[in-house]
What does this fold into?
Amino acid sequence: MSETRNPAKPESENLPRLVVLLHWLLAASVFFLFISSWWMLSLPLPSEEFTYRELPFQLHKNIGITLFVAVITMTAMRVRSLLREASSSQGWLQRLAVADHILLYTLLMVCCLSGYLSSSYSGWTTTVWWLVDIPAWSAENDDLNILFSEVHLWSCWVLLGLLLLHIGAAIYHGIGNDDAIDKIFRLR
Amino acid sequence: MQSIFMKNEIAKANVSWLAVMIMLFGLLLLAGHSNELLKQTVIGPGSSADLGMTADCRADELEEEQLSLEECQLMVSNVRIILSSSPQWYRSYQLTLSSLGVAATLFSLVIAFGLINRQSPALRLAILSTALLLIIDVAGFVAAVNTGPLLRAQYLWSLLLWICIHLCMLVAVIRFGQQGETDS
It folds into this structure.
């Protein structure tokens, strides 16, 4: 296969390797969190006898906390280029792409934070990867637990909608064979 | 000259599209196999639902989870369905198959990177990895056929869908490989 690039296509700047790796790590984590959470919520409610939820919920929180750190890192690394793209974007497709990315990052953070706050107000402790205890935000509070559970639930549904838009855009770029696909796969 | 350029562009577009598809379905499958691993780890014989314990449905928990009392009780039945419908060999078989599935899926994701980064053996390896995923789907399907009807109802449809997806992808990879060889 030739390495010749279509001269009509503009060359865009490469993404740092860490951003590429974080993008795919986030993608794998988000898919797993969605699929596993749909299943784990069908498990029997926790009690002294029924401990089925213990491992899935701890794992869910561990991945969520790791994902939050990854999103913050990725946002910090991409904020400048996203702002530049936002100010120079022409056409509704480009503007939609920039808005989709900004909303995706924001919603990922909201999902993680609301999940943590909900868990914190539920009175359950969080130990990251069974190693480090995370202090509870506050004492147990059922009303706030329910409130943040709702925020977590709805922000995740909106996130899923945006992800589908993101996936649609990836397929569009894949069929068009443009630089967007090269950028997010390029490890050099 | 124009025709060679067009052919290269089409071949690259095919590979680019293929890599996106491998990544998309690969990530979904990775989540599916990982969740199956988690499921088989958590739901084991001899656990409380298997011992016939009744559900503990406290009113405050029901309100918090927005569940009815009946739903809460059926959650335990749901676990019993899995346990009573699984033959003795099924859990260890699923644990092994899901572990293989995770490994094969990770391999296919690496191949997708190779396709975009223009690594020459990537297309041939893509055939291998997709065939491997197809074999794992078929092995899962055959196992599910040999379980009880309650478990078959849970597994067969999604496994059939995965078989179709991987079959389509395998045919596409083989065809793109043939086109690449003809063009070069």
Summary: Chain B has one domain: 2-46+87-183. Chain B has a mean pLDDT of 87. The helical segments of chain B are 2-42, 59-65, 69-85, 90-116, 122-145, 149-183. Residues 2-42 of chain B form the longest helix (41 residues).
